[in-house]
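We emphasize that the prediction below concerns an isolated chain of 376 residues; any contacts that depend on oligomerization or on bound cofactors are therefore not represented. The input was used exactly as deposited, without trimming of termini.
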Amino acid sequence: MAAKVVNYGIIGVGMMGREHLINLHHLRTEGVAVVCIADPHLPSQQLALDLARSFHWPLKVFSGHHELLDSGLCDVLVVSTPNMTHYQILMDIINHPKPHHVLVEKPLCTTINDCKQVIDAAKRRPDMLIQVGLEYRYMPPVAKLIDIVKSGTLGQVKMVAIREHRFPFLVKVNNWNRFNCNSGGTLVEKCCHFFDLMRLFVGANPVRVMASGGIDVNHKDEIYDGKVPDIIDNAYVIVEFDNGSRGMLDLCMFAEGSKNEQEISVVGDVGKGEAFVPESIVRLGTRTEGREGVQTLKAEDHRIKYDGLHHGSSYLEHLNFLYAIKGNNTVQAPPVDLNDGLVSVAVGVAAQLSIEKGQFVKIEDVLNDDAFKSSS
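Result of the prediction step, given as a token string:
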């Protein structure tokens, strides 16, 4: 008997929604089909339909997620709508009578309170898996560095430095990503990926954050409905962890002249590892062997059938989530769970607050005091 096809619906088919559609097409041999989409934006609908036709996938189109949920067509939902809509859509999915497994794009939500409410609601639905789209951990050089750290080769990790030097934010539908109130702020919207990676590398939880950042180059001459964008375009963020290790993020979003977009350094008391994206190499050395002993390794994952916008990580994200869904006909733990989503948002919120207040911000305060939130 042929294995049952897992039917997907995509809520939000802007740039990332269509990226998910392409990735899922490349997973069709795993028993995957996208059967419907929901998006009120007609041009996005049309672009998604054109893609699906090229794949010979007939799609049912809905203007909103309520109609899609009520259709009963889907087993799994991908939520790739603007950040500020995640909370209500997730709550509607969780509270719907029919269970749906969910992959929600990062960030989980734009505020701590919304994240916590989603987590509380999800506890009442053990029949559902909800995974957060923190897919950078699947990029081949990053995944290889994670494996090196887990092997103990570097010893006890003491310091993690992540540099992202890249291009400015892309144009999104109705320019929603130009304002903190919609995105959660740059350090939530973009950098939750890196705070998630720091936590993986050090094997500990964040306790305190200090940041400095500003709006120095990008979007300063843009005006939308009479408002100038308020998203920062560069920052330094220091994160302290409960095992004494430290992380640092160096973000610049006007650095198109960079060989690598991400450069990651993890230093333990025995050795040092580095990962470079998109160069897709890893360097590894130890204190005893010194500079002459540094190895350069090519990072590849031959499971990847589509590189896409994120160097194959979105493909692997979907593959791992699909395996969790299919696991022995029982509900398995998602590879990236809601708590991972919450903590990555909490560090971003703390960093945004630190810039505003000019002081260290404790993660405990951000998580436990709902009144202690960004004024942006």
